[in-house]
Design brief:
The complex is a heterodimer of chains A (about 260) and B (about 475). Chain A is of the alpha/beta class and about 260 residues long. Chain A has 9 helices and 14 strands. In chain B, about 70% of the residues lie in helices and about 0% in strands. The longest helix of chain B has 28 residues, at about 255-280. Classes of the chains: A alpha/beta (about 260), B mainly alpha (about 475). Bound molecules: adenosine-5'-triphosphate and magnesium ion.
Amino acid sequence: MSDPILELRKLNKSFGPVHVLHDVDFSVYPGEVTALVGDNGAGKSTLVKCIAGINSIDSGEILWEGKPVTLADPRAAAALGIEFVYQDLALADNLDITQNMFLGREISRFGFMNDGKMEAKAREALASLSVRTVSSVRQLVSSLSGGQRQTVAIAKAVLWNSRVVFLDEPTAALGVAQTRQVLDLVRRLADQGLGVVLISHNMNDVMEVADRVAALYLGRIAAEVFTKESSTTQIVELITAGRSGDVGLAPATVNESI
Amino acid sequence: MTETPDSGAPGTTPAATTTTVERSSGSFALDIDRRDLSDAVRGYVNRLRSGDPGALPSVLGLIILGLIFSQVSSRFLSRNNIGNLPGQGAYIAIIALGLVFVLLLGEIDLSAGTTGGMCAGFAAQAIFSNGLHKGISGGLFWILIGSMIAAAVLAVWLKAYTGAAMIVIGLLIVATGLDKHVVFALVFAVSIGSAVGVFTGYMVAKIGIPSFIVTLALFLAWQGVLLFALNSQPIGVNNYSFWYGLAHNNMSVAWSWVYTIVVVGGYALYTIVKSLRAQRAGLAADTMQLVLVRAGVIAIVGLGVTFLANQNRNPNPNFKIQGLPWAATIPVTLMIICTIGLSKTTWGRHLFATGGNAEAARRAGIDVDHIRVTAFVLCSSFGALGGVFLASNTGGAQLDLGAGNILLFGVAAAVIGGVSLFGGRGKPRDAIIGALVIVIIPNGIGLKPSLGAQWQNIATGAVLLVAAAVDALSRRRARGR
Ligand SMILES: Nc1ncnc2c1ncn2[C@@H]1O[C@H](COP(=O)(O)OP(=O)(O)OP(=O)(O)O)[C@@H](O)[C@H]1O
Ligand SMILES: [Mg+2]
């Protein structure tokens, strides 16, 4: 088993008086899909935004290939090769598909953009994901369906030579066929050696596609288990109660969290 | 998933070749490699149908108003009257151009008009008194200079380097005593505008005060500062020929031709080169036919207008009035520059993204605060230039220069042209078309003495309401589909 490419140690984050993340340890391994699960409000999205540099962290360490890094703004994470697909899709409605996919990283010379080149690349990225429902990469994002938006957001993330991809509930709004495609894509990303983090409430998806599962319980990591050695029942217990049998948080901690 | 081409696998950004992309089964069916005239027409009709009317409503409105006023008075369509329109409306066009930047962000600048009045007031005082420091009290002079230095430092910190440079130029003009010369004094006015914009942008972007409040406060405050700048005495500018000429003089016949040929030729050359390059690189491109037809239409319009403008339009036979008015060519040139900046540069793209979804822009790594500050700097700088044109049109720096309806006319022009007040949608050309609509109304009504001046504001208000209704309806149509 390889070393983690991205590792969080004792991460803490509060919003004012609300302590959202408690001493979170979390690792992402190259070539593996790590599912991050937890109930609504457990802190999954907050964890992702801390890594993205959208939320600042109060204490704790972030290690990239074993070396400490500070991820203070979105560019820092992008520079390392970490990409994000957010739950609250971060797309600008008034821009078209290409413009959104290249937002912040336009192909340009002396500040002047090369729109033709960006369009061609956007089309290729979408084609590589077997996207069949988009009729033009010049279409405004405001005219897309929920699933199409999700696809654009994922295509945006894989357009770059990324090493780690975070997908926050990427299938929540998708139909059956598109969910299938996204899950296939998630697997394919990992098979290519990327570290993939999948946040999902769907246990079937998690069991099918993930190699490991990290369960967040009220802002604490309850346990990290291998999917092969675990079961849906155990994971659901970890999500809802923080422990399952002798795996998980100590009873005292569970009670204290409540 | 067997049909997935391996070359395009995620994570390995593949070489750019559109040809590898499969276009069957509906994917990218609308992305045509070679767009010809009929594709362009079809695309335009599609946009109209999907609730994106572009410039169509404002141009139609302009034509309708033109038809109405040509019935009201036969003088309306006379070359002399049309030739006066730019001088009467340039200040609205320029203020509206600046407002486009902040409106695209979903912000507002209520102070652009009084900023312009104040800046023009300082310039008038500088010329009138042979140097600004001789015209105003020492206290005010050093407060102004100190504030400008502070603004320059702030601008550098906010990475608004062009704004900082503009402010430094103004400071150098004062330091070298050049501010007594008209041209330099006017540059100095714009430079004060840039400094104002830095402060406004800082308070909106960094402190987080709503732009409505910040600029409302400044709208009031600058009117007071204008009185100090003028020592409560209006200063006429008709004797300063360059300043007077901005709203009243024309380019020579020869230079008018040169101007039009450079603009039209530049456009044609750019689109031809762009199409050839894209075709050679195997990217989607407009066909030469489409490019030439478009350039041809623009050339015919441009050359036609120039030809008409170059005829003598003075009813008085004693001297000739001919050539393109400076009050037309300067706003049009600014519009072209703004259009290039907004549509071709990464800065412009980031401005649109910030206006559409600031959070998405932030997550994409865009420095949203920087974008906001630059928009306010541009708006105030354009406001200052607008104030200069206003003073030129009205003959001087009056005590209420830039106050009253001035700013609201600018906002109305932008909205009538098609800029959305909710941010994210609008073009510089909208400001120009809208300003034409705004200026044509008092002009047309003024030609018929029996129609009282009271109708001017009523008509302008009605037109604004119609424009806003068209915008709302087309947006509803866009959502409903
Ligand atoms: N910007 C914020 N300010 C204050 N509180 C916040 C903020 N963002 C998140 N929180 C709080 O942090 C907690 C965790 O939220 P988070 O969005 O991370 O949950 P989640 O695990 O992603 O839930 P879901 O499954 O519903 O997406 C919640 O109690 C939420 O109210
Ligand atoms: Mg969430």
